[in-house]
Amino acid sequence: MNNPIGVFDSGVGGLTVAREIMRQLPGEDMVYFGDTARVPYGSKSKQTVLKYSKQIVRFLKTKNVKAIVVACNTASALALDEIATELDIPIIGVVKPGAKMAVENTKSGNVGIIGTESTIKSGIYNDYIRELNPDITVVSKACPLFVPLVEEGLLEDRVTDDIVGRYLQVMKEYKVDSLVLGCTHYPLIRNTIERFMGKRVTLVNPAFETAKCLRELLTEQGLLNDRKKKPEYEYYVSDGVDKFISFADSVLPCHVTDTKVIDIESF
């Protein structure tokens, strides 16, 4: 099926999910929307995140997408289930694939979750992990400063080292051996997190796992496009085109040439 995949995030972090989809599903067209005018979602209420997510889904539907990926942990935690009941196309988030891999990877039974305040407060990772294995100890930590550090480009910087150490010391104390990067921005500071946590800790990137699950879902439903033609990617934001393009070029395997601003409030 030639229709594109719709991907959305609160801003630029979801480009890590888009990158994995490009790598793992090279035959698929994609429409990406980043809600850059209203970022971050992580400190907003469930009602607000649900409202924003519904607006974005309505916009993506105008692009005739065949499936939607909620490339935002906060929106996956707070809005996905309700939106799914109203859609006639498949929709997946980043939480379940990440939780599943964390359970498969742990040997000690101690799993760490880091994310935005809303994601951590929702407890959704904890719930999914305990559904899979009720004996696992889950250690959760909100890391609200990681997103602005990434968006300021401080990926390899002393201040990022300091903040990572301050936030993640508790993970060392609990001896977690599987740590979920529960926000799409966090893989971009993976090296810093890995240096602090050490090689014995497996870092779970939900973006990678989500792309894998998307391929399985599209294959099961007969929607996979495995053609050899060069795929087409469209990018839309609610504000800040230049900053988005600059960030996208540092993350994606292809150059972003055209990004359009959409009045998302009108949807």
- Proportion in β-strands: 15-25%
N- to C-terminal distance: 26 Å
User: What is the chain-wise order of helices and strands?
Assistant: EHEHEHHEHEHHEHHEHEHEHE
Low-confidence stretches: none
Count the DSSP helices.
12
CATH architecture of the largest domain: 3-Layer(aba) Sandwich
| CATH fold call of the largest domain | Rossmann fold
Number of domains: 2
Class from helix and strand fractions: alpha/beta
Sheet with most strands: strand arrangement: 4-3-1-2-9-10
Concise synopsis of the structure shown:
The chain is of the alpha/beta class. It has helices spanning 15-24, 46-61, 73-78, 80-86, 95-105, 117-122, 124-132, 146-151, 158-173, 190-197, 206-220, 241-251; strands at 5-9, 30-34, 67-70, 91-93, 110-115, 137-142, 178-182, 202-204, 233-237, 259-261.
Descriptive keywords:
single chain; about 270 residues; alpha/beta; Rossmann fold; 2 domains; six-stranded parallel sheet; four-stranded parallel sheet; 12 helices
Architecture overview:
With 267 residues, the protein is an alpha/beta fold. It has 2 domains: 5-93 and 208-266, Rossmann fold (3-Layer(aba) Sandwich); 95-206, Rossmann fold (3-Layer(aba) Sandwich), CATH 3.40.50.1860. It has 12 helices and 10 strands. The protein has helices at 15-24, 46-61, 73-78, 80-86, 95-105, 117-122, 124-132, 146-151, 158-173, 190-197, 206-220, 241-251; strands at residues 5-9, 30-34, 67-70, 91-93, 110-115, 137-142, 178-182, 202-204, 233-237, 259-261. The strands form 2 sheets. The chain has a 6-stranded parallel β-sheet with strand order 4-3-1-2-9-10, with helices on both faces. Helix 10 (190-197) links the parallel strand 7 (178-182) and strand 8. Helix 1 packs across helix 11 and helix 9 (158-173) crosses helix 10. The longest helix is centred in the N-terminal third of the chain and has 16 residues, at 46-61. The radius of gyration is 18 Å and the shape is globular. The relative contact order is 0.20.
